[in-house]
Write a structure and sequence with these properties.
Elements: E1 2-3, E2 8-11, H1 17-24, H2 27-33, H3 45-54, E3 59-65, E4 71-81, E5 86-93, H4 103-117, E6 123-129, H5 133-142, E7 145-156, E8 159-169, H6 170-177
Parallel strand pairs: 5-6
Antiparallel strand pairs: 1-2, 2-3, 3-4, 4-5, 6-8, 7-8
Helix pairs in contact: 1-3, 4-5, 4-6
Domain N-acetyltransferase: 7-171
Keywords: Transferase
GO molecular function: acyltransferase activity, transferring groups other than amino-acyl groups
């Protein structure tokens, strides 16, 4: 288990699926995590179990816990490019009572350190949509930098929005947060 200052990160477990299903069916959680509501809500518990527990060989998903080991979100990575030592990261704080309190930032710092130190990645990237200002600020606190925009690439609540592409290099991260 990975330990941060506020969060712990562990593999997903069978008991997590009911909570994940609630989050996937919450319009507000989906809006801010991906801008894809209601598309994400059209998955059954069985489909989520396959996605989060069995998954594809190139998608790694983990649970984010609070100080009391309560499941509050998920984090993971995909699109691993071993020759380029890179991957794409995602994070969702599904329990809305933890929004705006630094749990997502702490999980990102903890998980990024793991990816840079243990997986030996050189860079990690992520993306969101331009209306997700809270997430962009959290990403910037971790050290992610704006790398690009895809104009009107996201369709959110009936309107087109730009996709925001951000990246973080290993040395940038360690200079901000230290190696340990």
């Amino acid at each position: 288990m990975l330990k941060g200052q506020k969060t712990s990160i562990r593999p997903m477990e069978d008991d997590d699926i009911d909570t994940m299903y609630q989050w996937y069916n919450d319009q507000e959680v989906n809006l801010w995590s991906s801008g894809a509501w209601p598309l994400n809500t059209l998955q059954s518990k069985d489909q989520l179990a396959v996605k989060f527990l069995d998954g594809s060989p190139d998608m790694y998903r983990y649970a984010i816990l609070d100080e009391s080991d309560l499941l509050i979100g998920s984090i993971g990575f995909k699109d691993v490019n071993m020759p380029g030592r890179s991957a794409t990261l995602y994070v969702v704080i599904g329990d809305k009572t933890y929004w705006g309190k630094g749990y997502g930032t702490d999980a990102l710092i903890t998980f990024s350190r793991f990816l840079f130190a243990q997986w030996n990645f050189h860079r990690i990237s992520l993306d969101t949509w331009d209306g997700n200002v809270r997430a962009i600020r959290a990403y910037e606190k971790v050290g992610f930098k704006l790398e690009g925009r895809q104009r009107e690439a996201r369709f959110v609540l009936g309107n087109y929005h730009d996709a925001i592409l951000m990246g973080l290099l290993r040395e940038e991260f360690f200079s901000l947060h230290g190696k340990l």
